[in-house]
Design brief:
Structural class: alpha/beta
Helix content: 25-40%
Bound molecules: pyridoxal-5'-phosphate
Order of helices and strands: EHHEHEHEEEEEEEEEHHHEEHEEH
Strand content: 15-25%
Largest sheet: 7 strands, mixed
Radius of gyration: 21 Å
Length: 362
């Protein structure tokens, strides 16, 4: 069987060991004679799966004990609503630091439905025609209930390696596509949200890591399934959780630990992305759109200088067993997502193809 190199942005490639383990346990979980998806979420077997996953997540991200971890459904988009519903009182306001597509979606969800969201445009084209994050624009307004930003803009290929100083105003971040690709200081944030499907599991589950003192402020009409205090009180089993994704998340966390944790993965992600960006920077046939300091380590966005070759580029890639490199529909161009599970070999295969295609079309 020939191997396919999967560069989709999410759902995306998962580690081979994780897929094999899940396959082997699918019909018979640990000798119970029943498959993991057939098991009650209240069974002692599943409760252990759930607790182990949380414990590993806490260990890998060094989550302080005054933070709760909530396992939810509704995706990143669900959390775009949950954030104002849980943190923004009627008549209050929040600051949104927009650096790309997903932070703009979060801003709109708040502004159009729940209350006053103050828009701060924080990325702009610099003098070289590259998009650049301007951290000096990330200033909270007095009386703000929270400040919001997305640490990795999956669509644009912009990653923020710095965070603004927000004082007493909690900083809420979306890490859907860069969670566990690098160490972070959780105590810097009021809450971190992410969907599993970009990097750490299949679709269907969202995780919110939230500081305890931010619970209990939800609006009265906040749906119970989005109310962080309700989820906390019921230990993420207020409604039936997505058991399969929870289990798969746990397998991914185990895999990450076996490699040496998030610190080791960061090294690998730096090496992989550097290799790809260095090639693209030095090849005139392709173009990068993001300033070097803000380039995402996991979503490498580029274009062909001659965009009329796009369809052929994608078709030829497929013939080389390379899939998922077409850019997001709102942006066009190309995007190679090289998350934790992508081995360096996959990046080498991609670069070899990029070289071959450029040489054939110059
Ligand atoms: C994919 C993505 C989302 C949206 O997630 P859904 O689960 O589709 O709602 C939000 N934020 C970021 C950074 C993403 O990459």
């Amino acid at each position: 069987m020939s191997k396919v190199w999967n560069f989709f942005a999410g759902p995306c490639m998962l580690p081979e060991q994780v897929m094999e383990k899940a396959q082997s346990e699918f019909r018979d979980f640990e000798g119970t004679g029943t498959g993991i998806v057939e098991m009650s979420h209240r069974s002692k077997e599943f409760m252990k799966v759930a607790q182990d996953a949380e414990a590993l997540l806490r260990e890998l991200l060094h989550i302080p004990s005054n933070y709760r971890v909530l396992f939810e459904q509704g995706g990143g988009r669900g959390q775009f609503a949950a954030i104002p519903l849980n943190l923004l009182p009627e008549g209050g306001h929040a600051d949104y630091f927009v650096t790309g597509h997903w932070s703009r979606c979060a801003y709109k969800e708040c502004a159009e439905r729940y209350g006053e969201a103050i828009l701060h445009e924080c990325s702009e084209l610099n003098k070289d025609g590259l998009w650049e994050v301007d951290y000096s624009k990330m200033k909270v307004t007095p009386g703000s209930s929270y400040a919001y930003m997305c640490l990795n803009e999956t669509v644009n290929g912009i990653e923020s390696f710095e965070y603004p100083e927000t004082g007493d105003v909690p900083l809420i971040v979306d890490m859907s596509s860069d969670i566990m690709t690098r160490p972070i200081d959780v105590s810097r944030f009021g809450a971190i949200i992410f969907g599993l499907q970009k990097n750490v599991g299949p679709a269907g589950m969202t995780i919110t890591i939230v500081r305890e003192d931010l619970l209990g402020k939800a609006r009265k009409y906040c749906p119970s399934v989005l109310d962080w205090s309700v989820l906390n009180k019921f230990e993420s089993m207020y409604n039936t959780p997505c058991t399969f994704s929870w289990y798969m998340g746990g397998l991914n966390f185990k895999w990450i630990k076996s490699l040496g944790g998030v610190e080791e993965l960061e090294k690998r992600n730096i090496a992989k992305s550097k290799m790809l960006y260095t090639y693209l920077e030095n090849e005139d046939f392709y173009q990068l759109k993001i300033a070097a300091k803000d380039r995402s380590r996991v979503n490498v966005v580029f274009t062909l200088k001659d965009e009329s070759l796009n369809d052929e580029f994608i078709a030829q890639a497929k013939a080389h067993n390379i899939i998922g490199i077409k850019g997001h529909k709102v942006l066009g161009g190309m995007r190679a997502s090289i998350y934790n599970a992508m081995p360096i070999e996959g990046v080498e295969v991609l670069i070899a193809y990029l070289k071959e295609f450029a040489a054939a079309h110059k």
